[in-house]
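Figure 6 in text form: structure in, sequence out.
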């Protein structure tokens, strides 16, 4: 192959790898979000359908273990916090990966992609300015 063909092939390989990386990250976010929704359903069921004194069977791998309702709720809430952190980190990574893919493809940078929501303190400050 000549030099031009090799450069085109290298460029296409780089674009394909970057696109695959973006798709993999999206799939990870989807999988974690599905798990987070299942946890949310479990918390709701614990809250509404089971009395406080009942023990709950929790599946760990291929065995079930009985825990109190409060212990189970705490475990699921800790898992929810961890899932939220992981999903947020993956979303931040995804923005960078999409930006890199656009850069490789020669597309302009996405506008507004690097925006982040206001913190609660910033919202309080804006609200106090608007109400006064």
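Output sequence:
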């Amino acid at each position: 192959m000549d030099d031009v063909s090799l450069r085109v092939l290298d460029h296409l390989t780089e674009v394909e790898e970057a696109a695959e990386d973006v798709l993999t990250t999206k799939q990870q976010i989807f999988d974690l979000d599905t798990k987070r929704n299942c946890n949310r359903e479990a918390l709701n069921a614990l809250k509404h359908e089971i009395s406080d004194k009942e023990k709950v069977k929790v599946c760990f791998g291929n065995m079930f273990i009985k825990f109190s309702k409060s212990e189970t709720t705490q475990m699921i809430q800790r898992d929810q916090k961890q899932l939220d952190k992981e999903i947020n980190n993956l979303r931040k990574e995804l923005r960078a990966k999409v930006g890199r893919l656009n850069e490789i493809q020669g597309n302009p940078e996405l506008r507004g992609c690097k925006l982040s929501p206001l913190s609660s303190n910033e919202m309080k400050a804006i609200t106090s300015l608007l109400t006064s």
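Caption detail: The mean pLDDT is 90.
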